[in-house]
């Protein structure tokens, strides 16, 4: 089932085209990686889908219904966005930040019940952040806040989860944990669209990759079809060797140093000596 369909979506800011006629779709039960260089338009596309920004033309549909026909509350029940920049002005403990994710499910003027508290607690556990439940959100590290915000999105129980660089700030173990979690959410039926910079991790975890450059989709499809050396050079201006992962067959990408960089010019690895 198609959970999200964007058709000919365009968005300009101060007369400059940022999203230029994008068509894309995301299926239930799949993890889609949105990749592309800095400034390509990934965050803006996620903002348009989440209705943080409004496209000047084109249409965005959730489950076949144009989002303009949905009430704000219904949109919030359907999709959740985990932003790239973690807000720091929330003067709440982590557990209460996660509970905010229940807002679209609580009747207007109502307050969260035991069921909501239990969902929020389970969401914190799911991102491996149960230990921070009682800590003030603004006192957490960037990576800890990132996980709490993912838990808030999970507490929303969305059909479509949008995540803008969800592995930003995370150490490698936490990155793998987050991507495994996104994979598990997709396997449980949720449609996940995540902007990611690490192409090898995108290839390893995603079913589909959408490559964006200068506000347009330049390729989309399975990782092995999209993340080719030719496309990486075209889009990023970087040479890469793409080999097949020996275990799961996904593309494994080794980048060549940029020409003219100290590393590219050197005859081999530099020897670093420490101590006496
Ligand atoms: N509020 C804004 N005002 C002006 N320009 C903006 C605004 N938001 C985004 N842009 C511009 O739109 C373009 C796309 O930005 P966007 O943040 O969507 O890219 P991105 O692919 O997410 O980049 P990154 O990988 O660096 O996060 C950039 O050139 C950016 O400067």
TrEMBL record:
<keyword id="KW-0547">Nucleotide-binding</keyword>
<dbReference type="Pfam" id="PF00005">
    <property type="entry name" value="ABC_tran"/>
</dbReference>
<dbReference type="InterPro" id="IPR017871">
    <property type="entry name" value="ABC_transporter-like_CS"/>
</dbReference>
<dbReference type="InterPro" id="IPR003439">
    <property type="entry name" value="ABC_transporter-like_ATP-bd"/>
</dbReference>
<dbReference type="GO" id="GO:0005524">
    <property type="term" value="F:ATP binding"/>
</dbReference>
<feature type="domain" description="ABC transporter">
    <location>
        <begin position="4"/>
        <end position="239"/>
    </location>
</feature>
<keyword id="KW-0067">ATP-binding</keyword>
<dbReference type="InterPro" id="IPR027417">
    <property type="entry name" value="P-loop_NTPase"/>
</dbReference>
<protein>
    <submittedName>
        <fullName>Iron complex transport system ATP-binding protein</fullName>
    </submittedName>
</protein>
<keyword id="KW-0813">Transport</keyword>
<dbReference type="InterPro" id="IPR003593">
    <property type="entry name" value="AAA+_ATPase"/>
</dbReference>
<dbReference type="GO" id="GO:0016887">
    <property type="term" value="F:ATP hydrolysis activity"/>
</dbReference>
């Amino acid at each position: 089932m198609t959970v999200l369909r964007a058709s000919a979506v365009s968005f300009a800011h101060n007369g400059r085209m940022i999203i230029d006629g994008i068509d894309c779709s995301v299926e239930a039960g799949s993890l889609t990686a949105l990749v592309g260089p800095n400034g390509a338009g990934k965050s803006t596309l996620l903002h348009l889908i989440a209705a943080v920004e409004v496209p000047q033309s084109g249409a965005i549909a959730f489950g076949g219904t144009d989002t303009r026909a949905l009430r704000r509350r219904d949109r919030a029940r359907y999709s959740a966005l985990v932003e790239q920049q973690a807000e720091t002005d929330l003067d709440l403990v982590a557990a209460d930040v996660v509970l905010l994710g229940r807002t679209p499910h609580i009747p207007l003027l109502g307050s969260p019940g035991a069921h909501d508290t239990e969902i929020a607690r389970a969401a914190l556990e799911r991102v491996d952040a149960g230990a921070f439940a009682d800590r003030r959100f603004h006192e957490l590290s960037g990576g800890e806040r990132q996980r709490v915000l993912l838990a808030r999105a999970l507490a929303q129980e969305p059909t479509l989860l949008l995540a803008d660089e969800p592995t930003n700030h995370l150490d490698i173990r936490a990155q793998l944990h987050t991507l495994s979690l996104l994979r598990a959410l997709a396997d449980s039926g949720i449609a996940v669209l995540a902007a990611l910079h690490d192409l090898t991790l995108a290839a390893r975890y995603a079913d589909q990759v959408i490559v964006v450059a200068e506000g347009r989709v330049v390729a989309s499809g399975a990782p092995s079809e999209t993340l080719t050396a030719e496309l990486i050079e075209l889009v990023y201006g970087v040479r890469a060797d793409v080999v097949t992962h020996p275990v799961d067959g996904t593309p494994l990408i080794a980048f060549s140093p940029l020409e003219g960089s100290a590393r590219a010019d050197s005859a081999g690895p530099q020897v670093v000596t420490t101590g006496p």
